[in-house]
Amino acid sequence: MRLPAEDRYKLQYQEIGNLVRHYSTTRSALTSFLATVGLAAFANYHSSEKHLFLFSLVGNFMLVAALLACVHFSYQCERANLYARTLWNWFSGKEQEEPASFADYHPPKMPLVVEMLKDGMNWLCLLGIVSFVLGFHYST
User: Fold this and answer.
1) What's the pTM?
2) Cα–Cα nearest to 6, from 87, 84, 80, 103
3) Residues 18-40: pLDDT tens digits?
4) In terms of Cα–Cα distance, which of 51, 5, 56, 27 is closest to 125?
């Protein structure tokens, strides 16, 4: 039995809400974890005489990985938010054309980037990681 379009999109709207929470939580947890590992490597770099290059390499790699994780999950989160708006506009009658499925949804780049730039967590992550790296390199 096939659901009517409106019921199908109500379920999809609920699923998109779950995806937004998932991407946001994953972004916070993974970014925090990777940044902590990077900072621990830098702390070990300053307190150890052995394998200094390795600690520096691991520290920088983990901080870059934290930045990439933040950007990736922010992209996914904002993509889901834009899709939820598209679904809402269709429900409310502002758009007549049925939205594609989320897997096929590819929003225009500019609105997606604007939404990512509005997110304070992205700026905090970028500022924190850049200050960690600069602080480390200027302290050696």
Assistant:
1) 0.81
2) 87
3) 999 999 999 989 988 998 888 88
4) 27
